[in-house]
Automatic annotation (TrEMBL), chains A, B:
One Pfam family in the UniProt entry: CASP_dom
Any GO CC annotation of this UniProt entry: plasma membrane
InterPro entries assigned to the protein according to its UniProt record, in alphabetical order: CASP/CASPL, CASP_dom
Species this protein is from: Tagetes erecta (African marigold)
Superkingdom, natural source: Eukaryota
Quaternary structure (record): Homodimer and heterodimers.
Domain Casparian strip membrane protein: 28-168
Protein name: CASP-like protein
Organism ancestry: Eukaryota, Viridiplantae, Streptophyta, Embryophyta, Tracheophyta
């Protein structure tokens, strides 16, 4: 519908040439913030991932590694996926380019899925760490952190870092939904139509 | 917003008097969908909550109740909160009224928080149910569902219902972010300015 206006006066907004692109107004500052917000999780995810992967403890009672606990393996996998996605998307947003609707949709959907994934991974790992610290007498699950104190502390650090990633991604999905939905006014059509009619009448009067 | 076109020359839009209101165009169908999407979780949350609260099992090995497990208590609390919020917000959206910016922001933020809460509660309860079914030998957590089969099945049903609520809330937070951010074009201003300038020139020509 951007092309629509162009046919009339060819000047009602530079943002209407080619495919629908976003206004450039407050875009550069948002773009910088977004690129930063996508770079930060790269480091955080790698840190959380490495901390968790290197998390194992051997002692006289036995040995415990992150790979023995499903929730911690899930945390490692999700952090790995998000490190990759964050890096790719940061590289993509760093270069100024028109944000078309398919791109806005892609970012929006991937950001949403990422946010839900990392939140679920963090929550699940927190619960297991909580059980490891406190145990659950009724289910006969004994606490494990008395025996594996170092293991538990390192896992907790990794989980805390994961929640920093969660915060970044909550902000990122806010930005990408802003970017997507702030374009949705145009298809609703009242503004363009308004211009159209007025424009038509002007041409008539002018000729 | 529809009014906007009609009043083109007389005054520049009801949307400029008083608080910014949303277009009514595709709004009624979205509003119906939204009210429905807010009513469904009321029933689902209450079902998940009741199922979980009534979930306890006594047998020769001992007794187990939802209240013994932190994750399940959290699930009950979050389902209770969301049942209340869903009912209130459904009642609010059922009545057609102008959606002002503060209202759009309130819905957006509460929907986001609700979605994250119910997702976290569902994920955490799933992990505990998983541990109850499978156990974790390395941490010496034995499986509990061999002994408390009925308890586990009822908890699983409650968790599945909770994930239906998650789906509803993912859609709801999509709708409320669409509603909030689709207004963000207007303050950016280029479209309104376009209309304004043309309108001014028309008045000049007409007189």
């Amino acid at each position: 519908m951007g092309d629509y206006k162009n046919e009339k006066t060819s000047d009602l907004g530079a943002s209407d040439t080619g495919p629908v692109v976003l206004e450039e107004d407050g875009n550069s500052s948002i773009q910088t913030a977004e690129t930063l917000l996508r770079l930060i999780p790269v480091g955080l995810c790698v840190a959380a991932l490495v901390l968790m992967i290197k998390d194992s403890e051997d002692n006289e009672y036995g040995s415990l590694s992150y790979s023995n606990i499903t929730a911690f393996r899930f945390l490692v996998q999700v952090n790995g996926i998000l490190a990759g996605y964050s890096l790719l998307s940061a590289a993509f947003t760093a270069v100024p380019r028109p944000m078309t609707m398919p791109r806005a949709w892609t970012f929006f959907l991937l950001d949403q899925v990422s946010t839900y994934l990392i939140l679920a991974a963090g929550a699940v790992a927190t619960e297991v760490a909580f059980l490891a610290y406190k145990g659950d007498v009724a289910v006969t699950w004994s606490e494990a952190c008395g025996t594996y104190g170092h293991f538990c502390r390192q896992a907790t650090t990794s989980i805390i870092i994961t929640f920093l990633v969660v915060i970044c991604y909550i902000l990122l999905s806010l930005i990408s939904s802003y970017r997507l939905f702030s374009k949705f006014d145009a298809p609703a059509g009242y503004r363009n139509k308004g211009i159209e009619i007025v424009d038509f009448e002007m041409n008539r009067v002018d000729s």
